[in-house]
Amino acid sequence: MAVCAGALCPALVSDVRAGTASAAAAGMRADLTSASCSSDLSSSSAFLPRRFCWQLFAGTSGRRRARSRKNGPFAFQSRASMGSGVAQRPYTALMIVPTGTGASIGGFAGDALPVARAMASVADCVITHPNVLNGAMLYWPIPNALYVEGYALDQFAEGAWGLQPVHQNRIGLVLDVGIEEELRLRHLQVADATCATLGLPILEYTITDTPLQVEKWLDEESGASTGRLGRPDSLMRAVRHLVENCGVDAVAVVARFPDDSCEELVDYRQGQGVDVLAGVEAIISHMVVKEFRIPCAHAPALAPLPFDHTISPRSAAEEIGFTFLPCVLAGLSRAPQYVTKVEHLTQSRNGTLWTADVDSVVVPVNACGGDGTLAFARKVGRKPLIIAVEENETVLNDTPESLGIEAVRVANYWEALGVMAAHKAGVHPKSLRRDGVVHLRRSYDFTKTPLESSVSYDESLLVPVGVQS
Prior knowledge:
single chain; about 475 residues; alpha/beta; six-stranded parallel beta sheet; four-stranded parallel beta sheet; 16 helices; 14 strands; globular; DUF3326; DUF3326 domain-containing protein
């Protein structure tokens, strides 16, 4: 959109100025001229270049022009004008695919990334987590998507933390001392390559003082993957060094994982079953984020597997390189910082997103029991629309009905995007179905049994008919 906006910018500005002149001649309000171009650009206006946003207003009324100049030529638009229309706020969607649960879509090597890309074309802002966006050697930058670690996502949903978008994070890299020298050098080459080729700001790396001793297994009750670190203290010391002595804003962790036999990975490499690595990967990043409140993501260090020409496309992203680190570094480079309410009030953090900004939450149909989803479902007051996708099944059994969650069930992500588009447009999704609209239900018949009113009021406040209040 940035390229398109830059190409169209002069013509649009010319049209706006011309419209302003004609409107002024006709005695009309010049402010209305900006509406002529808002319909085509409104869905992405929150992410237009700042100069472009300012130029759109450059030919309007003197009052608005003065307001733009007050904040300089690179001032952002107000949040009220960033959404689908001048009087609408941005539409924010949250996409969740729980890690290590064998999700049909999103349970493999970045195979939910196409869904996130499509969702970002409907929503003004998409909030999601590394399991959705990470594709090992592959990554796709989505300008209006926020890369949020799972524990931070839960804190955000509960209203404890806000998400502060950034232009750039300074990244630190933690390597497990248990990684063999050649494999360690492979990961350092990836870090060097992302600095030279992508321009990512990776400041320093450190190596843990003892092996992290990763253990992994499948939970017998749920079937989801899980695990633990034998030496979490070693990880915490390494991260603390990078945060306190090197000034990093985000941390990537690479731990040496036990090598699985080919037989154990047959199902996963064929696009079936559960990713046995994912559960303990989430545990590692959770520990770091909970302790230091900075973005963190993990990439496992594994010995290369034998070549197999039958690999599923859903798992193939993990077969094309020696490490899974590139997507992690790319995601962390623009991950939002986590802000508490106290910091928001005392440090004037403009542009921070909070749980009240979320309009819809999209989850697999039987994975609705996570802390984040439950927090949104149990909110008091205006709740986001929860969309449960039936085609994306997991090994869990947490359906909306079993948890008492009010949700819209959809067959697949195609339908989920349609429901989001209707919701964003202010159209009730059921009105798009043939028999979706039924007769309006009467809530109470006061003519039969009047309710006892306990509401008191001051009769002197009543205004006679014809008197202007």
